[in-house]
Design goal:
The complex is a heterodimer of chains A (627) and B (297). Chain A has 627 residues and is mainly alpha-helical. Chain A contains 23 helices and seven strands. In chain A, helix 10 packs antiparallel against helix 14. The longest helix of chain A has 32 residues. The chains are: A mainly alpha (627), B mainly alpha (297).
């Protein structure tokens, strides 16, 4: 069966409306419609896999054709995002189960958000992409508001930044519209290849600001931690795994397909074999890694750790993409897939823990391993992936990025990237330790594993993370197609890893996994054959002669890395956030003075009017004389 | 083929006995510096046999049991990715970067196991261990980078062959080698960087709840880790070895130098240790990197 692109685009919108209408009947009817329409794109998409369709016109407006299209890059993203949306819709049904009206709206908005994301991915002209991009921002704004206590602050922060990005992109779009006279991607690419340097640079920077805000790259990351942490858990998954990736998708599409690396290297000076703008972006990526990682280490809130970690991971993606070599871009694209999987997984697990215990504050949690074993194993796989340890999927993409940095001969960037990897061990261990290890709190004695259906999202993503880790050839199949589409030589790969090729030492994850399993079997046999161990209570511990009791447990959880906090404390005053805050302070003070104009006295207002009239007339007259 | 598989099977066993020898030698040497007689050379082996044959073992849960198993399993894995003279081991399937990441699997296992015990000392120990790791990794990464730039490869076996015939990096790149040595020294947790186990503060940290067969397994893993860490340094900076005997002799040399420092130092506080690593060894490593980066290969 053949489905037109417009059908794919409209499916989620129909689904959302139907589900919302069905909520008048019963909640379960609503949920059935919701899930079915979340599944339908899986049926529609395979036809378009790795196909390139350009310029499917659907509307003519102001003499411009709005068009849709699909290419290997967007079809890869569509498939990934459909999966994430489907899984988070399962989670959402539980999360909003007893929230009545709000739940109905959330269902509607999540479906619409999927439609908006599809719109951005399928757009083949800058106007369509902009309309859907803004729709996305509005829907995220509504969805975030349904979250935790601070959600309304987060909402405002998000929309402020989204609007900054929107305005910056709008300026670029208007500029291009007037200069190129056309809005199609292909026409604009054609115009840009001969455009003057200033226009290329200005439009690229304006677009990049819009994309990088959505991708939460330093210095535009300040909205990320609070928004990710305060949004409902199912929305956090979508934010980290989809919305952020939409920004990075657009960055990749614009940088490689619309503008093109050749254009930059033709127009701009070269720095160490990179065009200047790409070199700056590499450094921004590296700084994002280090800042995201170091701040994630000292967080006390489970979702904030994940939020800062996802800031750091998008640094890796930007670093990989902006290297511009086949190896680096492959690493960046692969990390987009992998990060969506493992960060979604971790948000699901943390969401499940919150669902059962009602808190995301790490010192209030602990010892849940015996109560929630499935969640524990899922999180274990997730954190191994975040830390980039084989055989989970995070290893493959980070490996490619590191090797690309070595190939480019950039030791300082490589050092920063590797140090970020080490730092990630710290925060992921803190996360799993404070939730699942350590001592169980008394009030959590009766906590159970999350419901079976709610485990599906975690299990699916955990298995995917493992599968893509052991057999990197599966995601690489899509990535190499995308690389060919972006005009790079796809790197060589096979199902089990990467063969020896220029700049890349051979890597083979199955060999690592099998050897590890063999080692485990040897050690496990030795362990199993020796006398069995007797189980003891968690408080039956050695504590230097002191006896731990229910009241005095000394559970080590709050300020886990307080000594690390001491080390980075001197740098806190240089934070980007404080710069913005002083700017906000300035605006407030200025506004305060401006407010005094409104005295409530009619005479003042009339005299202001007269003064303004005089000033404008003077300008008009003087202008007439001078020009 | 059969010969290669046999070598792969026997290397972890060799690594274990070499590690026991190095640990035993260290204890003897420390004793002699303290003007004691010291235990016999095979004392670590006796300790392991004693621990493994304990009748009474305690456990805090499944992860607590899995921790030591994972530690030993990962140690075996890591040994197989470290080349030995004349044999590539599994290095055709993973390079320096992969090796760095494989090396932490064991520590992760142990950290998870110790975490489940619920003992605050264990948690503090691990928090310190991970922070210390962030400290010593910085100079180690820079030193590693320098070698990668110099040789244009990330293959550990090539590192070894390219240094043969006294083209040791210790002589060619002394600054990098010093930084690498300090980092390795910190990674082995010798004084003044023994904040992780710190018996007087956190009662041996991660190992506090472990006893009996669990501790026995951990000690097996530790013996193999000693082999790995000294072997890694020997491969990076001391030119590997012409045969397995010179390789072990060089490892012994590394241990002797380390023990000389180890016996005379008190202990850093953890934040000071990290600050130290990020200051002096990093600076030395950066200068070394600069020399290679500017001076060419």
């Amino acid at each position: 069966m053949n489905f037109s692109l417009l059908m794919i685009l409209l499916t989620p919108f129909f689904g959302g409306l139907l589900a919302y209408a069905a909520s008048a009947l019963h909640k379960s009817v609503r949920n059935i419609f919701f899930l079915i329409f979340m599944l339908i794109p899986f049926v529609e998409l395979p036809v378009y896999l790795n196909k390139t369709v350009d310029n499917f016109y659907y509307l003519t407006i102001l003499g411009q054709n709005l068009s849709l299209g699909i290419n290997p890059l967007s079809s890869m993203m569509l498939l990934l995002f459909t999966l994430i949306f489907f899984l988070s819709s399962i989670f959402m049904m539980f999360e909003f189960n007893d929230r009545g009206e709000e739940g109905d709206l959330a269902v509607l908005e999540l479906s619409f958000l999927e439609g908006a994301v599809f719109g951005v991915l399928l757009a083949r002209d800058i106007l369509t992409f902009f309309i859907f991009f803004e729709l996305m921002a509005v829907l995220v704004f509504f969805l975030v508001g349904k979250g935790y206590k601070e959600a309304h602050t987060a909402q405002m922060k998000y929309i402020t930044w989204a609007l900054i990005g929107a305005n910056s992109m709008l300026a670029a779009i208007v500029l291009l519209l007037f200069k190129a006279g056309n809005i199609g991607y292909t026409e604009i690419a054609g115009y840009l290849s001969t455009a003057p340097t200033s226009i290329v640079l200005v439009t690229f920077i304006l677009f990049a600001i819009g994309f990088l805000i959505e991708a939460s790259i330093m210095p535009f990351h300040v909205w990320t931690p609070i928004t990710y942490a305060e949004a409902p858990d199912s929305v956090s998954v979508v934010l980290a795994s989809v919305v952020k990736k939409v920004g990075l998708y657009l960055f990749a599409l614009f940088a490689f397909s619309l503008f093109g690396l050749n254009l930059f290297s033709k127009l701009l000076p070269q720095v160490l074999n990179n065009s200047l703008v790409m070199y700056i972006l590499q450094w921004i990526g590296a700084l994002t890694i280090i800042i995201g990682t170091f701040i994630a280490i000292v967080q006390e809130d489970a979702k904030k750790i994940l939020a800062w970690s996802s800031v750091a991971q998008s640094g890796y993606i930007l670093l990989g993409l902006s290297l511009g070599t086949p190896l680096g871009v492959a690493g960046g694209l692969l990390h987009i897939i992998n990060h969506s999987i493992f960060k979604g997984l971790l948000f699901f697990v943390v969401g499940g823990v919150i669902y059962r215990t009602g808190t995301k504050n790490l010192p209030e949690l602990g010892g849940l391993i015996k109560k929630m074993p499935v969640s524990f194993i899922s999180m274990l796989l997730g954190i191994i992936a975040v830390a980039g340890i084989p055989p989970l999927n995070g290893f493959n993409s980070k490996y490619l990025i590191y090797e690309a940095l070595i190939q480019k001969n950039e030791p300082i960037l490589l050092t920063i990237a590797l140090l970020g990897g080490t730092g990630s061990f710290m925060y992921v261990y803190r996360l799993i330790h404070s939730i699942f290890l350590g001592q169980l709190h008394e009030e959590h004695e009766s906590v159970r594993e999350v419901p079976l259906i709610m485990q599906i999202p975690m299990i699916v993503l955990a298995l995917l993370a493992l599968l893509f880790g052991v057999l990197p050839g599966i995601p690489m199949y899509f990535v190499s197609k995308v690389e060919a589409f972006l005009g790079l030589d796809p790197i060589k790969y096979n199902l089990t890893g990467f063969p020896e090729q220029p700049g890349l030492h051979a890597g083979n994850v199955p060999v690592i996994s099998i050897t590890f399993v063999a080692g485990l079997v040897v050690a496990g046999l030795l362990f199993y054959l020796l006398p069995r161990a007797r189980k003891v209570h968690q408080l039956d511990n050695y504590y230097a002669g002191e006896v731990l009791t229910k009241d005095v447990k000394y559970n080590y959880s709050f300020g886990f890395y307080s000594f690390f906090d001491d080390i980075i404390a001197p740098f806190n005053k240089w934070s980007v956030e404080s710069v913005y805050e002083s700017f906000v302070g300035f605006i407030k003070t200025a506004g305060d003075y401006l407010r005094r104009v409104y005295t409530g006295n009619l005479e003042t207002y009339v005299s202001f009017g007269v003064i303004l009239l005089v000033i404008f007339s003077l300008i008009y007259i003087l202008g007439g004389i001078l020009w | 083929m059969v010969k290669e598989i046999l070598t792969l099977i026997f290397t972890p066993i060799l690594a274990f006995f070499v590690g026991i020898f190095l640990l035993g030698f260290k204890r003897k040497m420390v004793a002699r510096i303290h003007r004691r007689y010291g235990p016999p050379l095979h004392q670590p082996l006796l300790d392991i046999i004693k621990l493994l044959s304990k009748k009474e073992n305690i456990s805090h849960g499944v992860m607590f049991d899995l921790g030591p198993v994972m530690y030993v399993g990962a140690a075996i894995l890591t040994v197989l990715f470290l080349p030995i003279p004349g044999f590539k081991q599994l290095t055709p399937f993973g390079d320096l970067i992969a090796f760095l990441y494989i090396m932490v699997i064991g520590s992760l296992g142990m950290a998870l196991g110790a975490g489940e015990s619920g003992n605050p000392n264990a948690s503090i120990g691990i928090a310190r261990a991970l922070t210390l790791m962030l400290g010593y990794e910085l100079p180690l990464i820079i030193a590693g980078n320098t070698l990668v730039i110099k040789y244009g490869t990330t293959d550990l076996y090539k590192f070894m062959t390219l240094q043969s015939g006294f083209h040791w990096n210790l002589f060619l790149l002394p600054l990098t080698a010093i930084a690498g040595f300090i980092a390795t020294y910190g990674a082995m947790g010798e004084h003044p960087f023994d904040v992780v186990v710190a018996p007087q503060e956190v009662a041996t940290g991660p190992m506090v709840e472990y006893g009996g067969k669990h501790l026995g397994l951990l000690m097996i893993g530790m013996a193999i880790s000693t082999y790995i860490e000294t072997g890694f340094f020997v491969i990076l900076f001391l030119g590997g070895g012409a045969n397995i005997l010179t390789f072990i002799l060089k490892q012994l040399g590394v241990i002797i130098v380390m023990t000389l420092f180890d016996t005379v130092f008190p202990r850093f506080r953890i934040e000071n240790a990290v600050r130290y690593f990020w200051r002096w060894p990093t600076l030395i490593a950066l200068v070394g990197l600069l020399i290679v980066y500017i001076g060419g290969k």
